Amino acid sequence: ILNVEQSPQSLHVQEGDSTNFTCSFPSSNFYALHWYRWETAKSPEALFVMTLNGDEKKKGRISATLNTKEGYSYLYIKGSQPEDSATYLCAFGSGGGADGLTFGKGTHLIIQP
Amino acid sequence: DSGVTQTPKHLITATGQRVTLRCSPRSGDLSVYWYQQSLDQGLQFLIQYYNGEERAKGNILERFSAQQFPDLHSELNLSSLELGDSALYFCASSFTGGTEAFFGQGTRLTVV
After folding, report:
1. Residues B32 and B49 sit within 8 Å (Cβ to Cβ)
2. CB-CB neighbors (< 8 A) of A44 in chain B
3. Other Cβ atoms closer than 10 A to A57
4. In angstroms, rounded to a whole number, what is the distance separating the alpha carbons of residues A109 and A9?
5. pLDDT tens across B27-40, in order?
6. How far apart are CA A10 and CA A13, in angstroms?
7. Which residue of B has its CA nearest to A41?
8. Residue B67 burial by CB count (10 A; 0-12/13-18/19+): exposed, middle or buried?
């Protein structure tokens, strides 16, 4: 059973502040690392898919980095806004791509006005 | 619209019964994943199919089974239902594990 850990489990951040959280995953048999945003009453939606060590991806105020050798990824949110409130999930893909994605339990982010 | 279709959206059934949840993946996606989200739990991986074959199994109970058909749609069968099986069941599809997964809207199962 693959272990994908996310921390912290939940996070309260003041509007306008920047924040980051972590996803840890096995460093062996790596294929891809995904980040998803899951808003209440909606389905998870992909933010980033990263495959190379050292990858950095950015979408607006949100960015992510990847370290496959040590098995972690960071998600950063700059200048948090209320609409950023959601659960952020990471998922680890292994086995050359055909194997399933293993999701972490998520970081629940609440932005306080 | 993610392109992944799940039916039904809601299902209410009694304990001991059997239900089938259906998922149609996005066109061209070969992998189908089933996840369960219970109260206070994140997404729990149940099972994955890749091009018709079972590829990975998570915490799926023996009372649950799934299959992927030649047209790549998938069904999750839940039998001898218990109150604790009440949850939101998501299906997702992707071309491979390296491409993003697209989630359906989920099936809300309530066992009474």
Report:
1. yes
2. 43, 90, 92, 101, 103
3. 16
4. 9
5. 999 989 999 988 76
6. 10
7. B105
8. middle
